[in-house]
Amino acid sequence: MTIKDITTYLEGFAPLAYQESYDNAGLIVGDASTEVTGVLVTLDSTEDVIDEAIAKGCNLVVAHHPIIFKGLKKLTGKNYIERTIIKAIKNDVAIYATHTNLDSVVGGVNFKIAEKLKLEKVKILAPKSEVLMKLIVFVPVSNTKEVLDALHAAGAGVIGNYSHVSFRGEGTGAFRPNEKANPTIGAANVDEEVHENRVEVIFPAYLKNQILVAMHRTHIYEEVAHDIIMLENQNSEVGSGIIGELSESMPETDFLAYLKQNMGVSVIRHTKLLGKPIRRVAVCGGSGGFLLGDAIGQSADVFITADYKYHEFFDADSRIIIADIGHYESEQYTKELLKDYICKKFINFAVHLSETPTNPINYYY
């Protein structure tokens, strides 16, 4: 089993196309064709994590946070980033990161937090738009099933919990081949009419190339009449944060205690309590302040996230409780998520949860 086998599997769950523009997810160090001896899953890549990987016989580190965000012009070991990269290269340890792409998908980082909090009716808080495309293609009726089967196999026609979704409308296609054409149906310089289906399917935009390959491979026409349209529709399967509900409402102080216990945190920074029960909960692991308006707009009672600055707490404006539980603390269970997902498919090598503490923040009580 190679590194590429692992990364391809992970990217089927959290496609790299869904990472934010500033991000650097993907294979950061290593040769994708290398055979895997073991995987160490961590939140952060550090020198100590690389040492742990070496000690455990793991030549692949799967991390949430990328060790490199900006381009490196030199590798001299002057800081922890360069030292980590140098140590990984010297010891043939590959580093792979799945970051904001894992934040953005159903079943990803925020859904793991929702699981820890036992939330119900969980959905994406701020779905992304312009990540879906529609293919419209005109196909002879006799060729329609073959083309649709290929498009579905390539990833088209999935909407939420439904697959093999398409629209078909029958009509008449008309054309006249010239002398250079090699028509499947008809003859040069003769008007032809064919009973056709107008077929429409939706697909994730990052699959565009393979969708077109599937269409051309199975369509019987020499020239395929088709349109591809970028959709403004929101994709309920991709986006930022989540929102869900507790099975029963809780008093605010009880909820904060519940949050502290279930997320394994030692301290919570929060805005003033509003004297209202907590039922509807919005969550964004890591730095999620940009989603406050979405949380308020969807009537959340509390917004759980991290990295809030002093003045940003005022933005709650007595409309919601902001609960900052810390960046590391909010994402710490991502390791479990990744290990469980990898172990579902790969059983011929060990997958370890890193035991190296990587939280750079300490608290004095």
Summed up:
The chain has 365 residues and is α/β, with parallel strands linked by helices. The chain is built from eleven helices and 15 strands.
Describe this structure in words.
It comes from Emticicia aquatilis. Homohexamer. A divalent metal cation 1 binds at residues 65, 103, 327, 331. InterPro entries: DUF34/NIF3, DUF34/NIF3_bac, DUF34/NIF3_sf, N-reg_PII/ATP_PRibTrfase_C. The protein has 365 residues and is an alpha/beta fold. It has 3 domains: 3-103 and 333-353, NIF3 (NGG1p interacting factor 3)-like (Udp-n-acetylmuramoylalanyl-d-glutamate--2,6- Diaminopimelate Ligase, Chain: A, domain 1, 3-Layer(aba) Sandwich); 117-126 and 240-325, NIF3 (NGG1p interacting factor 3)-like (Udp-n-acetylmuramoylalanyl-d-glutamate--2,6- Diaminopimelate Ligase, Chain: A, domain 1), CATH 3.40.1390; 131-231, Alpha-Beta Plaits (2-Layer Sandwich). It is 27% helix and 29% strand. It contains 11 helices and 15 strands. It has helices at residues 3-13, 47-55, 80-90, 100-103, 109-116, 144-153, 208-218, 252-262, 292-297, 327-331, 334-345; strands at 26-29, 38-42, 60-63, 94-97, 120-129, 132-140, 167-175, 192-204, 226-231, 234-250, 269-270, 278-287, 302-306, 321-324, 350-353. Helix 3 (80-90) links the parallel strand 3 (60-63) and strand 4 (94-97). Helix 2 (47-55) packs parallel to helix 3 (80-90). The longest helix is centred in the last third of the chain and has 12 residues, at 334-345. It is globular. It starts with a helix and ends in a 12-residue tail after the last strand. The model has no long low-confidence stretch (mean pLDDT 97).
